[in-house]
Each structure stands twice: as C-alpha cells, then as structure tokens.
Write a structure and sequence with these properties.
The chain is mostly helical and 330 residues long. The chain has one domain. It has 13 helices and 2 strands; from the N terminus they run αβαααααααααβααα. The chain has a two-stranded parallel ribbon with strand order 1-2. Helix 1 packs parallel to helix 8, helix 3 crosses helix 10 and helix 11 packs antiparallel against helix 12.
Length: 330
C-alpha cells in the first residue's frame, strides 16, 4: 500500500462511522423513549470491547508518521464490525415495531418466487429427505457470525487495507438499506406461507424460523419490548441480510491468495441455505445480493470521490487525519 492509499483508508474508516453512528443513535433514541429496553449484560460487554478496539485504533493513528497500518486498521475495522453486530439485532426489532402498520407481504413475495419458477416446498422437502444436506446447510447458515470479525483480520494480515475499508463501509450501508426496506415490506417467510411446521420437516432445523415468527407477532402487538442481545433472531425477511452478508464476505476475500476460493465456496453455501434454514423467499436472496452489490458500488465510488477531491500527500506528525504507516503490507 502506498502513502496515498493509507491516507484514503483512514478517511474511509472515519466515514464508516457515519452510518454506524446513525444506526446506534436510532437504537439509543428508541430505548430512551421507552419503546424498548435492552439487557445491559452482553450488550454492554460487546460495546465495551468495540470501544476498546476503537480507542486502540485512534491511539495508533495519533502516532502520526510512526503509525503502523495493521495495528491501526485491524482493531479499527474490528471495532466497527463489533458495533454492526450488536446493532443489527435490536435494530431489526425496532424496524418490525415501526412497520407494524404495514401489511405482511408474504403473498407478494411468494408470487414473485412463482414467476421465478422457484418451488420452495419442493426444495425444503428435498433437503428434509437428506439429513446430510440439512446438516450442511445448517452449518452454512450459521456461518454469518464468524466472518464479521474474520474478514477484517484476514484482510488486514494480507495487507488488503483499502479493500477492508470498502468492505466495512459497504457492510454498514447494506445493513442500513435492508433494515429500512424491511419496515415497509414485513414478512414471516416461506414456511409460514406454505403452512409448514417443525413436525413436517423433522430433519431440518427451523428454530430460527419459528423464533422469528413468534417474535414478529410479539413485537407488532407490543408484547415484546425487552431485548436480550444473545436471544435475538433477526426479523428481516426482505431483503435477506444473510444473502447480502455472504455476497460481501465473498467479495471482500476473493482477491486474497488461497483464502479467496474457500471464501467463495463457503459463502455460496450460506446463500444456498437461506431459503431452507432461514425460511427466505428466493426474491429475498436476490434482493439481498443486489443490495450488497450496490453497497459495494457506493463504497468504491465514494472512495474514488474522496481520492479525487483530496489529493493524497505524505503525512506529517501534525496531520492526524492522514496516518503514515511505518511499513507497507504485501
């Protein structure tokens, strides 16, 4: 990475706090208004970890010319990933409450799947008859947790710091867009539309689906107002944030030698799992990937604009907005 790229990464890092801060502010305002409460235990611990990582990044940046890019951007990106992780759950519940006045869109989403010639019942029953496939898809669906921190670590260690900043900004933007759309297009998911229960597919683990259905009803009727971070299941059906995340994870790691092909394969598995394990419509998956692609386009376009409007120059100790790495990564 050259000097100009290091400075551009720092600008993008700071810009990424804008969507993250906006989402955090919305959660805070909602809690302060009394509409929801959040358990302080796990939420507070993770927020504390994120804050410590952010402080470590800014302390490294304060070293000016002596700042090391990996010691700066790795904890910085990890901090932003932690905050995204703790925001997405509560925000999806808040969005479901705000969208309580809008009708469910399951019929419309199912109709689009029909136009796309996708038969979710056949797909679900096909998997139910093959326990090995159900186990594989269950593993794929659960993979969304680890790349949130794994991607920043891998990209930082590989020296792909500009791609790391593009990824983190795109992930934040994708979260904003999916949550916003879900307010106006609430849905239960394909299991509810098909009338399938756990007893109908005993070899498929659909506890996430049933938990989501119960919580959507409880949030919309006002009986669920206390949120425990580790108990949240995520209530966004359309667009699928699972599909958006998988697209972003694969895109971020694709250029990394040796890791790229594995990342693409594993995230393709995550995408394939969403209609069966996550109860998503096919159009949810397509929409999620479109949101991810547009978020990447927005992040890279903003990067180009920042680079063009503020020509890169070598940093001096006083230039706290342009940290100069001590050594460049490969």
């Amino acid at each position: 990475m050259n000097d100009g790229e290091a400075a551009l990464c720092w600008r993008l890092f700071n810009v990424t706090w804008i969507p993250i801060g906006a989402m955090a502010a919305l959660v805070a305002v909602t809690v302060a208004s009394g509409r929801f409460t959040i358990g302080v235990g796990s939420f507070g611990v993770m927020a504390g970890v994120g804050a410590l990582l952010a402080v470590a990044a800014y302390r490294e940046a304060a070293r000016g010319e002596a700042a090391d890019q990996r010691r700066l951007f790795l904890p910085g990106a990890a901090a932003q990933a932690v905050f995204v992780t703790i925001i997405v759950g509560p925000l999806s519940y808040i969005a479901a409450a705000v969208g309580a006045g809008f009708p469910f869109q399951d019929h419309a989403l199912a109709a689009i799947d029909t136009v796309l010639h996708f038969d979710p019942r056949s797909a679900i029953l096909f998997v139910n008859e093959r326990p090995w496939l159900s186990t594989l898809l269950d593993f794929g669906y659960g993979m969304i947790k680890w790349p949130l921190l794994g991607v920043p670590i891998i990209l930082a260690m590989a020296g792909r710091l500009l791609r790391l900043q593009h990824y983190t900004l795109a992930l934040s933007l994708a979260l904003v867009v999916t949550i916003a759309i879900s307010v106006f297009a609430p849905a239960f998911g394909n299991y509810h539309e098909l009338g399938l229960a756990a007893a109908d597919v005993p070899r498929v683990d659909i506890h996430m689906v049933t938990g989501s259905e119960q919580d959507i009803v409880a949030v919309r009727n006002g009986s669920l107002r206390h949120l425990e971070l580790l108990a949240l299941v995520g209530l966004v059906t359309f667009p699928s944030f699972h599909a958006a995340s998988a697209f972003l994870f694969a895109w971020a790691l694709y250029p990394v030698r040796l890791v790229g092909p594995v990342a693409v394969a594993l995230n393709a598995l995550m995408i394939a799992s969403t209609p069966v394990i996550g109860g998503h419509y096919l159009i949810d998956v397509i929409a999620g990937m479109v949101v991810a692609a547009l978020s990447i386009l927005a992040a890279t376009r903003l990067s180009s604009l920042l680079s063009a409007r503020a020509p890169m120059r070598a940093a001096r100790p006083a230039d706290r907005d342009l940290p100069q790495p001590a050594s460049a990564g490969p």
